[in-house]
Design goal:
Blueprint (H helix, E strand, L loop, with lengths): L13 H15 L1 H11 L6 H14 L38 H15 L28 E5 L4 H11 L3 H11 L5 H10 L5 H9 L6 H8 L9 E5 L2 H20 L62 H12 L6 E4 L13 E8 L2 E8 L3 E8 L7 E6 L10 E7 L2 E6 L3 E8 L8 E2 L11 E2 L11 E7 L8 E5 L7 E6 L12 E2 L3 H10 L11 E13 L6 E11 L4 E8 L10 E7 L12 E7 L5 E7 L3 E8 L3 E4 L2 E5 L6 E7 L4 E3 L3
Parallel strand pairs: 3-7, 15-17
Antiparallel strand pairs: 1-2, 4-5, 5-6, 6-7, 8-9, 9-12, 10-11, 10-13, 13-14, 14-15, 15-16, 17-18, 18-19, 19-20, 21-22, 22-25, 23-24, 23-26, 26-27
Helix pairs in contact: 1-4, 2-3, 2-4, 3-4, 6-7, 6-8, 7-8
Amino acid sequence: MPIHQPQQRTDVHPGRTGVQQAEAALVEHYPRLVRLAYVVLPPALGRHRRVLAAHAVVQRALPAAGSPRVPAQSRRSGAPVDAEPAPEGAGSDLGPSGAAYGWMRLRVLRGALAHERRPRWWPGRLPAPAALRPAVPVVWGLRLFPRAGGVDELTLDRALSTVPGAVRAAFALQLLEGLDESGARDLLAGAGVSDPAGAVRRAARLGRPDRAGAQAMLRSGEFDPCTVQTRPSDLLRRRHRVRAVAVAAALCVVAGGLAVAVDEGARPTGDDRNPAGVAVPALDPAGLLRTSAERWADTSRVDFTAWPARGGRTGDGELLGRALRAWSGPPDSVRVTTTPGTVAAPPVEPPRLLFAGVVDGAAVVLFHDSGDRVVRYAEPLSGSGGAALDFARTDDADVTTGAAVVVSRTGDSARFLLAPWIEESTTRDLLAPGTPARPLAVGPDGVTAPAPRPAANGACDSWPVLQLRSSGRIVEKHAFLVTDLGDLAPAHLTYTPKPGRGAPARQPREATGGEALLAWARTACSLRTLSGSGVRAVNNWAFAEQKLPEDGASAGWLCTRADTWRGPGRVLVHFLEPAGSPTDPAAVVADRDDTALCSRFGQHVLAGTRWKAASGRWYVLAAGSRAVTRIEATGAVREAAGGPTFAVRAPRDAAVELTASLRGGGTLAAVR
């Protein structure tokens, strides 16, 4: 009997091999893909939802079993080339350079970028096509957060929050995935980005000058959604939901035989719907989050989430309902204001109640929304005036930037609601640095007595600030200054002294010492230019000191940097020549918007000015930060000098260009 060789089996499902390869790549590199998705996703989601969304994006990236095989991979960029068929066995290399991983990375990138294209009101903040799929993973009763990093990681996260998702993707592809600019452009193009070259160019400006440090921060626990910390969600709200579900189930049993047909055009739009017609349970006063009174003293997250609900009308459901309905869809009679970079959209989740009470003849309600915004609603108790609704960004607030909120402004004074960890409150005048601070009374509900606020117009003859001291119960017992710049959250003022000879660079410190107060006395009036721009903190950095020509007197150079809640900063460079009064205003010699100068990501600065000596002669003066080793002038005057300062005689209107050489290489142009 003839013996036949067994026929070689061929896979009747060639697509199954590709899916198995993709699954193997996903499992092997899951933490890496989830971290990539987390960085690309919009920070506005909040850390909890961003963690869950990152895992959901990666898990949904796995194709269905009937999908085509893994496409072949571009040798240049690692991006799949869909038009090129894969040879047998393609993608068996599951490493970062393999086709299977490259395909999964592209799908993850597309999913993460899709979050910025969904409507703001979409449930769960998911892209519309995926809305009907299960939102996996699902976490009940817990809030998940990556491990908190330091100030540098927080600064980088804020910088990423100010750029589009395509720029965050380009940044992550280069620093996390190790792609060059060409490879990042190709992959972004494959993910559907309209301007990949522009995204790569903008990403190149992030993390400068210490890109290695930025890369280490991206790989730290702050951006790792696979290593998370947990804490419970609001327990009372969960109990309310359980009861509501039980009542709803009972009603369904009673009315199980009824069917109601409602015409689509006659659908009711009650108070529990937002302007888009989507039901929003977050607008129910009974669902508001409320923090216990002592939570702030027993948590590692000392920010607005630790504020208890205070005020005499926290139980007034009608007032809270009016405030929430005004937030959902403000009528024409409600005046709405927003600080730059803040959205006025209705809340997606129930907000936290911070305050509800009567202040200066108005009923005031303060909400905190998902870690992103503080919202103030105020309606007059008498008269014909309309209500007001104010929005301000407060994401990633801390002990100092989350220490106070304006609840009322009347005339030249303001009242603040102070954080529960504030133990002592005083006021002082920056233009009177030698005058002691004066006590500021605080009521049982945390609202201060009227405190003077800076005048918006007219002569700048005083600059009132609050000097607050935090409680020792949070091991942060220190005094700090905040000032009202026209937003809901006052700005935190700090000071960085010039390093001593041979000493390392110093970090910003609280502006309560004598040297800091003297510096602020000469620069406080320049804060007027920052009013209403959503400023989070302002730092005065004394980056240089210079001996003046002819008489040898000493002059100082300050870089005043204002950081906004949305990320971009503004820089004013001040020249402090000798003055007869400690409050003589310094001269502003440079003003730059949207810059990293004078921050951790812009540690080098060079500035110049024209100065007239007592003899009547004019000079060009320049000074640089500690890494400047040489300053050179070109143009109408050609001169150079070693060291961080420079002075040369020049006509008053001479056109001069200043450049500096840096220790370790590189050059620096003067800020204008």
